[in-house]
Amino acid sequence: MKSSDSIVSSMLQPEQGDCLHQDALADYEPRVQEVINDLIQALKARTGSSVNLTDWISFFAFDVMGRVAYNHEFGMIKDGKGTVSVEGKATSLEALRATMKMYGIFGPVPWFFKMIGQIGLVGEMAIFFQWCHETMRMKQKSFDPVNDTPTDISSWIIKSQSDASDINKRQTQRSMENDSILLILAGSDTAASAITNAIFYLTRDPDRLAKLRTLIEALPDRSLKSLATVRYLDHVINETLRLKPPAIEGLVRETPAGGITIPNDGTFIPGGTTVSIPPWTLHRDTRFWGEDAEEFRPERFEGVDLTNETLPFIPFTRGSYTCPGKQLAYMEMRGVISAVVMDFDLTLSEGQGEKEFDEGCKDSFTLENPPLNVVLKKRGTE
Q1: Residue 103 pLDDT > 70, yes or no?
Q2: How does residue 13 score in pLDDT terms, banded at 50, 70 and 90?
Q3: Domain boundaries defined on the chain
Q4: What average pLDDT does range 64-84 have in this prediction?
Q5: Phi/psi at 193 (nearest 5 deg)?
Q6: Quick one: CA dihedral 250, 62, 7, 364, positive or negative?
């Protein structure tokens, strides 16, 4: 998912840009916490009744990108209906999901999106694209790259363009608007998928849920900074990402002109060949993960060095194109998972089957979860 002259794949890299470095993440932390608080309050108001957790976690992730990418309150949680409007342009969670399905089908065919861009988009995908474009234009109107200090990802993008010494290397206006699509899709849909699945796994595993609660209760507070010290929470997250990686099939790459040779068996792949490693398959390979590779067992990550380049674990890809928003995603995942399991007891709603949810996910470029209907009860109440 990229545009030919996009700077999202380069400027957003932590070593090259400023919008996702540690100081920026520290600025984003209170905004993420505010949205977590909004989510918990909304769920508390719905205790005792069946709620679709898949949708509510998606509302959360969408609102986080509003605060972090645009320093704007989208208000999807407060609305509770999966819709949002900016400058008179409206979109919805369903439009986002429809867009992801199109990317899942036609993403490897780059000329397709150029074609539909020329003849005009239709349906929910068009609605979503137009909304993203308008959101970036809104930011361009309100942010002065010369005199204002960037406070979010989009303002860093705008400032980077303004500061570019070579005018020929600056993005086109359309490319800037298309970056807005990438920010919303990559920043919201992937985190929501992992959070929902982690809560599902913990709900059906009371022993590991109790272990996690005990470790969180021992913290001096439940700030996002403190939660980052709970290794077992990260093990839960990583095990979820192993079993349910956000990008099931992985991202495509093109081999260099001279081709490449696979070290293990000497297989030669010619230059200019499109290749991909599907994380779903790699993460469940018993040669790497043992005979229980299909099982949820967070303890398998104890003592594992995640920086090891040979580790068969690539939920955020690897190398120069690793996901620049990885640390932001971990911040979101730690915060929401801990808040939900510490504040609520969850049971599956009547008619909600474990197997139907666990095996009902779809590949829509990113992992698309089916509804997860649960009944929430505040912890400590009868």
Answers
A1: yes
A2: very low
A3: 8-378
A4: 94
A5: -60, -45
A6: positive
Write the pLDDT tens digit of every residue in 345-381. 999 999 999 999 999 998 887 889 999 999 999 997 7
* Annotated binding-site positions for heme: 323
Nearest 5°: CA angle at 69, between 242 and 186?
30
Write out the chain in H/E/C secondary structure. Answer: CCCCCCCHHHHCCCCCCCCCCHHHHHHHHHHHHHHHHHHHHHHHCCCCCEEEHHHHHHHHHHHHHHHHHHCCCCCHHHHCCCEEEECCEEEEHHHHHHHHHHHHHHCCCHHHHHHHHHHCCCHHHHHHHHHHHHHHHHHHHHCCCCCCCCCCHHHHHHHHHHHCCCHHHCCCHHHHHHHHHHHHHHHHHHHHHHHHHHHHHHHCCHHHHHHHHHHHHCCCCCCHHHHCCCHHHHHHHHHHHHHCCCCCCCCCEECCCCCEECCCCCCEECCCCEECCCHHHHHCCHHHHCCCCCCCCHHHHCCCCCCCCCCCCCCCCCHHHCCCCHHHHHHHHHHHHHHHHHHEEEEECCCCCHHHHHCCCEEECEEECCCCEEEEEECCCC
Which residue numbers belong to the known binding site?
323
How many CB atoms are closer than 10 A to CB 287? 7
Measured distance CA(241)–CA(238) in Å, rounded: 5
Task: Name the CATH code of domain 8-378 (choices 1.10.3210.10, 1.10.630.10, 1.10.510.10, 3.40.30.10).
Answer: 1.10.630.10
Tokens of 284: 């469940």
Query: Which pLDDT value is given to residue 335?
Result: 98
CB-based burial of residue 153 (10 Å sphere; 0-12 exposed, 13-18 middle, 19+ buried)? buried
Average pLDDT over residues 234-249: 95
Residue 11 has what pLDDT?
41
pLDDT band of residue 12 (cuts 50, 70, 90) is very low
